[in-house]
Amino acid sequence: MKKVCGVLARLAGRGRVLSLMLASSAVVADGLDASEINLEAEAKARIQPFANQLLETVQEAIRAQGAPKAVEACQLMAPQIADRHSQSEWQIGRTSLKLRNPNNAPDAWEQKVLQHFQQEIAQGKPAKELSFGEVVGADYRYMQAIVVGEPCLACHGEKIDPQVRATLQEHYPQDRAVGYRVGDLRGAFTLTLRNINKEPAR
Ligand code: HEC
To answer: What is the 108 CA–ligand 1 centroid distance (Å)?
Structure first.
């Protein structure tokens, strides 16, 4: 964990360093080598299709069935969508410090990164710019902040329709994922590529 903290401490300047490094790919600086840059790019590329499918699914369910039923659709579909996007060697999911589904609970590393995101926000950094990746043991891990937008408020906002609230209570009796405003940090996408030094198959 010591190493995690050391790397986290350097997070602030990282975006700039990264863009410089991408411009001249062989450069090694700030403790990141070229393979980590490639892994970061790979991780990033996997997030948008996953996020899009989640959002499209929930919006379609709201349109077709209304928000209370869409809560149930989300409970059913969100884990399936995560599985579908974890078919390659990359695992992808979502986590948060204020959970709806306890299955999405962060492990120790994810918790540290989420707490660091919160500190960065407290220091004035926009939530949507926050991401962090590093090699952890034999794995590469990457997280990117999830920010609350308008379409999220029906189920995660401050004023939730009573029927939606009742459905949430029924399915998630320990729900803590409410009371958010647009721009808040909701949680993060979390990705793992296992065993990065494994010999490629011949
Ligand atoms: C129709 C209601 C609904 C809407 C709209 C909605 N969510 Fe959720 N959200 C849920 C439900 C239900 C879960 C729990 C899914 C599960 O059981 O895996 C969830 C889970 C999550 C999680 C996983 C962490 C946790 O607490 O379990 C994140 C992150 C999240 N939502 C973010 C968002 C964001 C960002 C938006 C807007 C783009 C959004 N949600 C819109 C209902 C909704």
So the answer is: 22
Give dist(CA 145, CA 24) in Å, integer.
27
**The model scores a pTM over 0.90:** no
Report whether 133 contacts 40 (CB < 8 A): yes
Pocket test for ligand 1, best of 71, 155, 164, 167 (most atoms within 8 A of CB): 155
Average pLDDT across the chain, whole number: 87
Encode pLDDT of 139-150 as tens digits.
Answer: 999 999 999 999
Mean pLDDT of 193-201: 79
Ligand 1 pocket test, pick from 63, 100, 148, 190 with the greatest ligand atom count within 8 Å of Cβ, gives 100
In the chain, where are the structural domains located?
2-193
Closest CA to 196 of 64, 69, 61, 89: 89
Q: Cα of 144 to ligand 1 centre, how many Å? A: 16
* Residue 181 pLDDT greater than 60, yes or no: yes
Atom number, ligand 1, closest to the C-alpha of residue 148: 35
Residue 85 clears pLDDT 90, i.e. is over it = yes
